[in-house]
């Protein structure tokens, strides 16, 4: 199993809030939370201790506890700094203790502790024992500059896990206690990963501190005979934000559904492409049929009618042969004129049918009819497949009963 400890202060939506941790919000809209298991959660904070979920007693929220801690411990620093701002003519820099509580550089840091995953984890009491031993050791080693504000065990999500929030502080150059992580770690004697290089994003005391916490957690876990990978997922799974981490298990569950949806979307896209192609071909064929129909039903019929009339006239014995020859020439010319006119008529009809507006309107009708037909065929195919599948299940069941 993996042991993960994910740390963070803020994400794309600002600083992390503690309202998720003590469930101080309407959980009815939180699909990833099992409302029936909320009572199994365990909560602790630095002022009220453990909460009894069954007593019905009212408790101060984690957020109010943290705001109170900042007010009690950092008020002198804030007021003195505001005086210095006024003296230096920069009153716009003045802040309150609540302001530094919400600032992403001085707000509490949050850690999420989890052992295993939704498929393979440890009993909740083991996780709590590991966590409380770990928190106690943190306080013993670093309690002068590291203060655990609150923590919560969540049993109402896919995998049991713990949210813990803490703040680093130490004296500044004026002798005031204020939240400052790197200075606090320096005072605690935490070295840089590479002391020969300057402090920076990739070389800071927090990296060393987190490595010490990892080793400490692993040592404590071994006391409970947990078989954990010595190289645990540590530091946020590629720096995922808090809410992403919380919902990670639910996202994994949805992966199979998303793949199926993607496949279905591709199939639907293929169907739409097929419908469009069929509509294009159908329309072109329709144009050919229309022009051929015009020729057959109008032009050829008129020519045949003229020929019939001409034959009737030419059969009349009273008409001299000379005039019959003249009549034949005129009839032949009329038929030739009709045929010549037909070419122009066909071109006009074809041009009209291929005008963008006419073409698109007619294609839309063809497309709708085609899509309807394709859907009907797909439904018939799906029904047939379902019946075949059900029949195979029934046959397997009968075979099993016979074997028994």
Detailed description of the structure:
The chain is an alpha+beta fold and 404 residues long. It has 9 helices and 9 strands. Strands 1, 4, 5, 6, 7, 8 and 9 form a 7-stranded antiparallel β-sheet that branches. Strands 2-3 form a two-stranded antiparallel ribbon. α7 (248-315) packs antiparallel against α8 and α7 (248-315) crosses α9.
Note the main attributes of this structure.
single chain; 404 residues; alpha+beta; seven-stranded antiparallel sheet; two-stranded antiparallel ribbon; 57% helix; disordered C terminus
Largest sheet: 7 strands, antiparallel
Radius of gyration: 42 Å
Task: Summarize model confidence as the mean pLDDT.
Answer: 80
The SSE string, one letter per element, is EEEEEHHEHEEEHHHHHH
Q: Ends: how far apart?
A: 40 Å
Q: What's the short version?
A:
By secondary structure, this protein is α+β, with helices and mostly antiparallel strands. Helix content is 57%, strand content 11%.
Q: What order do the helices and strands come in, and which of them pair?
A:
Blueprint: E1 3-8, E2 10-11, E3 14-15, E4 42-45, E5 49-50, H1 62-87, H2 97-102, E6 109-115, H3 124-142, E7 146-154, E8 161-171, E9 177-179, H4 181-187, H5 205-223, H6 242-246, H7 248-315, H8 321-353, H9 356-403
Antiparallel strand pairs: 1-6, 2-3, 4-5, 4-7, 6-8, 7-8, 8-9
Helix pairs in contact: 3-5, 7-8, 7-9
